[in-house]
Amino acid sequence: YDGVAELRDGTKELREETATLDTDIIDGIKEKFDELMGKGMPTHSFTSDKNGEITAVQFVMRTEGISIPKVETVLPEPEKTTLWNKLLKLFGL
């Protein structure tokens, strides 16, 4: 009898503790997402006070430098052609 009563109490406690589990998980995800996106943090304007009416927004993004790899091009040596080779090429032979 004691084991059945303990099982009943345990399942009751499990049901009570997990009744709002779905909303708790969603709320936790939303809270973490807001934290990662900086919600509630002060925003800073980097525009000059001299600019009265700003009509366009510009963004500056700092990235690693872009470099073009140097490729060594080796040109084939021009073949030495003789008169006979030129005639053969002329007639497609």
Quaternary status of these chains?
A: single chain
What share of residues is helical?
A: 40-55%
Overall spatial form = elongated
Number of strands: 0
pLDDT averaged residue by residue: 83
Largest sheet: none
Report the total helices: 3
N-to-C series of helices and strands: HHH
Low-confidence stretches: none
Please tell me how large the radius of gyration is.
Answer: 38 Å
Instruction: Give the distance, in angstroms, between the N- and C-terminal Cα atoms.
Output: 106 Å
Portion of residues in beta strands equals under 5%
Structural class: mainly alpha
Describe this structure in words.
The chain starts with a helix and ends with a helix. The longest helix is centred in the first third of the chain and has 17 residues, at 21-37. The protein is built from three helices and no strands. The model has no long low-confidence stretch (mean pLDDT 83). It is 44% helix and 0% strand. 0% of the residues are buried. The chain has helices at 2-17, 21-37, 83-90. By secondary structure, it is mostly helical.
SSE order and pairing:
Elements (H helix, E strand, L loop, with lengths): L1 H16 L3 H17 L45 H8 L3
Which terms summarize this structure?
93 residues, mainly alpha, 0% strand
Give the gist of this structure.
This protein has 3 helices and no strands. The protein has helices spanning 2-17, 21-37, 83-90. The protein is elongated and about 115 Å long.
